[in-house]
Amino acid sequence: MNYCKGTVITGKNTMAISDRCPVPEEPCPTGAFIRPLIWSPCTSDAHLCATGCESLPYLLGKAVGHEMCGEITKVGSEVQDFKVGDRVIVCSVMPVWRSMEAQDGHAKQHQDNMYAGVDFPDRGGSFVEEYYIRDADMNLALIPEGVSLEQAVMVPDMMCTAFEGVRQLAPEFGSSIAVLGIGPVGLMAVRAAVLHGAGSVFAIGSRQKCFEVASEYGATHLVDYHNENYREQILKDNGGPVDGVILCGGSEKELSKGLSILKKGGTLVNMSAYFSGAPIEIDPAVWGFGYGDKIIKGVGCAGERLWMSRMAKLVACGRVAPEKLITHRYHGMDKIPEAMDLFLNHDRSLIKPVIYND
Ligand code: ZN
């Protein structure tokens, strides 16, 4: 076992730079070592920090982080498509491709990431100096020519999650979509819905900076969540309930709000994570009293080489400008706690921070 520097959560709202983050001495035959070039913290990292890893206690003291791009420094003997020096996007979720879940078409439901490392459970997240990945050929993607590091690091979670939500919503051409919550994933969902052929796209949020990006991404209606009549306003502007809802953030109570603007027979894709332990209450009336044919889908990030490569292609072709999400830039691992504080302090100027490893 070797050790490297990494950013770890040490307790509620406390982080530290540690030099005791474990790395195996050699990658397994299908594995690789990656030296990070850029990291991006995320709301879920901040949640772990705010709660002192309450939902995943074994992560306490281990490295945090799951959005990273880097350069390959070593590959195992069976890696075929990647070599030392390649600049790659690293999966946020790491499906185990030799699993029953993969054969069942739900590969991401059996993961080998920091949440459930299979052959090296001590690994932790990717905010480290040297990251170990077990299945390089399946769970890395090359950064295409012309795509910047800042753009690339928005791929593994922001794009892979939001576009997966819209893929599962599968809007018809010209349909009306409401995105409830326009943080970085919600904003990407706006862009994804536009590219997927939606007509009206309602971006529901409260921060001016996010409204600006939503507008640039093609939202047709900017709706202020703090306006207590915002739902009536959507129904009026849309001429009735919308065809699809994407829920990106907020508490358990938002589910009912999302359903209340959804047509009967429509689909709500939930992209929020609920860790509080509170029950999710649904007002029966907004769910058509249980027989309104309203589908609720709980969807998480899709991670794999193919999906990440497709997302990167969207960037390379100029269809998505993910760098618009980046509001804060730092240099050096020591700045990661400062970047995380933006989340913990609910900084209203924040959409996404990035930290260069230089
Ligand atoms: Zn993330």
The number of helical runs is 11
What amount of the residues lies in strands?
15-25%
CATH class term of the largest domain: Alpha Beta
What is the CATH T-level topology of the largest domain?
Quinone Oxidoreductase, Chain A, domain 1
How large, in whole angstroms, is the Cα Rg?
20 Å
Determine the N-to-C terminus distance.
25 Å
The average pLDDT value, as a whole number, equals: 94
Q: How many domain units?
A: 2
Report the strand count. 15
What oligomeric state is this?
Answer: single chain
What's the short story on this structure?
By secondary structure, the protein is α/β, with parallel strands linked by helices. It is built from 11 helices and 15 strands.
Question: What do you see in this structure?
Answer:
This protein is α/β, with parallel strands linked by helices. It folds into two domains: 2-142 and 321-356, Quinone Oxidoreductase, Chain A, domain 1 (Alpha-Beta Complex), CATH 3.90.180; 158-298, 3-Layer(aba) Sandwich (Rossmann fold), CATH 3.40.50. It has eleven helices and 15 strands. The protein has helices spanning 43-50, 100-103, 136-139, 149-152, 155-169, 184-195, 208-216, 230-238, 254-260, 305-316, 336-344, and strands spanning 2-11, 14-23, 32-39, 68-75, 87-90, 131-133, 140-142, 177-180, 201-205, 221-224, 242-247, 262-270, 295-298, 326-331, 352-356. The strands form three sheets. Strands 3, 4, 5, 6, 7, 14 and 15 form a seven-stranded mixed beta sheet that branches. Strands 10-9-8-11-12-13 form a six-stranded parallel beta sheet, with helices on both faces. Strands 1-2 form a two-stranded antiparallel ribbon. Helix 5 (155-169) packs across helix 6 and helix 5 (155-169) packs across helix 10. The mean pLDDT is 94. The structure holds zinc ion. Zinc ion binds at residues 42, 44, 66-67, 92, 157.
